[in-house]
Design a protein that fits this description.
Elements lengths: L6 H23 L3 H23 L8 H24 L5 E2 L5 E2 L1 H18 L8 H17 L3 H13 L6 H22 L31
Antiparallel strand pairs: 1-2
Length: 220
Amino acid sequence: MYGSWSSAQVHAELRNILSVREAGNRAFRSGDYALSTKKYGEANYDILWLKGLRYANVIPADDWSIVEAITEMQYTTQSNGAASFLKYDAFSEVDDDGNEVCRFRKALNCTLVADEGLRDHPTLWKPSEGAKRKLLYRRAQAYEGLEGYDRAWEAIQGAHHLSPERDEAICGLAMKIWKVREYGKDGAEAGFVPMEPDFFFKPYRKEAYDRPGRCQLCEA
């Protein structure tokens, strides 16, 4: 149906997808989350279509730069889509059964779709640590919004583990989730945090000892 694509054709299509994602980025920066969500969705659809062409042997199977580029694009764009849903307060959708779907559920779905290929082919569709870290951070935010704090904790642990150095956003979210899991939502919101365990204050890397602040995931 599609014939055979050359590597140059695939990379040209990836550039087209990148331009759509960039349109989403511009909309996101301007606060137009309806438009950014739409553009990220378009880009994600095109990435999945392109990925399907590889499974169908339409695009070169021996060009690993294609696999790397598609995977990285998918993880980054799905992370962007999740971030957009998390900001999109006015989002409203009803599923086929008449149930309302909240923005946190849509954000979570973005992060789960990106991992489907990795679960099936962990070596083939392996993203960079940076892309995976960003995706896990968005997943933790989505689970937090859904009040799934155990899953949120699991996700933020994964993001923290992939951080080459202290990341204030990741550590801040980890602290927030940890307090809710330890003291309940009401206790955390009231600032009720009694004596925390020693590991709460340990840095993630030895070179971080001289940095202000600690988080409960930071380890020596």
